[in-house]
Amino acid sequence: MSSEIGKKADFSIIRYAQCWEDADILLEALAIQPGHTCVAIASAGDNALAMLGPGPERVIALDLSSAQIACLELRVAACLELDHGELLELVGARPSGRRLALYRRCRPLLSHDARGFWDQQSAGIEQGIGHTGKFERYLESFRSRLLPLIHPRTCVERLFQLESVQERESFYRACWDNRRWKLLFRLFFSRFVMARMGRDPSFFHYVEGSVSEHLLGRARYALTELDPRENPYLQWILLGRFDTALPYWLRAENAASIRRNLDRLEWRSQSLEDFLETQDAASVDRFNLSDVFEYMSQGNYHQALERLLVVGKQGARLAYWNMLVPRRRPDRLAHRLRPLRSLAQDLHRRDKAFFYSAFIVEEIL
To answer: Which is more confident, 212 or 116?
Structure first.
């Protein structure tokens, strides 16, 4: 089964310089144990690294894009070579005037292909590697060009000082939710603008309904129900940095376990579909599938699920996100795949990467 999206989109560029999926809820959903073999969609590599924290036997990171694999490789090299503060500098989470020097220290640990890729990205490295993706540049345009037209800097900073849901709801109604916010948000996060500046038009092939209305509602949830002081994804969108929160892989308390288990991580520039065709039956315990099913037809999604059921062991778990396209186990697979709905719904309520409409956790029977 060949990759559907691989025939439609350009994967030669960094589309995502960070993983915009909450590793905290991912790890809770998967409940990775020592001895497990895990598969992850690589993206920028953040969550594949996070999956090393619990100490599995093996994590296999996959991505169609060699540029995304290069992102993962540089992160691995940085985790090995740099101390925690230096790692934050290289990513762009902390100010730095020496990022190229930090890269040069990591460079000998990269493969030939990754070195060739990053040697051509000096401007992006100087800015911080977490800023270099197409999606991150799209968010930077929102932050630097549109947000100042909506709210003064003091208003944005005030958002990160509110302690209770009640305070945030009052602030949202009285100060944040003005006409300019709703108008410019709907414009900038429309399907038309997002397809051209943030994602690829082919990513919206199976999307129905209003993209901007969905995202506006999820943004309100993140600004009120969730605590912005604990949300690294919201902080990066609105501030351009991690302020009072970091994603799992960048937290100091997780650095030692990730570094200790780096030799258990491998990566392949390969589609999920091609990978599954080459694997033995009942060989994988945990799957982090990102939102890959959004880019497949319903029929191809069902085919991929069926192959996952072959490759996964009994009791294996699948975790994946829906943002704009609903994807859930079909009824005809009910005897082979059990949805963990209560767990998934609880985790989705806590999902700091707030723009997703659903988080799905399923277990192979």
So the answer is: 116
